[in-house]
Amino acid sequence: MDRTLEWKVGLVLTEESGTTRARAVLDTGTTELTGHGTAHCNPQDLDIPEIGDELAASRALRDLSGRLMRVADRELEAVGAGPPKRQRTTPVFGWPAEPC
């Protein structure tokens, strides 16, 4: 099956009081996902807005990527194609059981 899709990603950056915030929105035509990222300018550093923009944007895109991967993982599980569930071999808390 051949097909072509176009998904659109919008990125909005705002800066206020030394903090840059980014919001990345993915629109697939049927679903919309949003990722967020921030960057803070250290008062001792030079204030270079482009660096804050890049950091906040990359963090928002990374967050968006993780959200998209979690959606795909859930959909794979729903059709029985997800990775096998790992069995926990150690306790969640406390000391591990000693072998007999």
TrEMBL record:
Domain of life: Bacteria
Residues passing through the membrane, by range: none
Matching InterPro entries: Rv2632c-like, Rv2632c-like_sf
Pfam families for this protein: Rv2632c-like
Start and end residues of each stretch annotated as Disordered: 79-100
Coiled-coil region: none
Protein name, per record: DUF1876 domain-containing protein
Native species: Streptomyces katsurahamanus
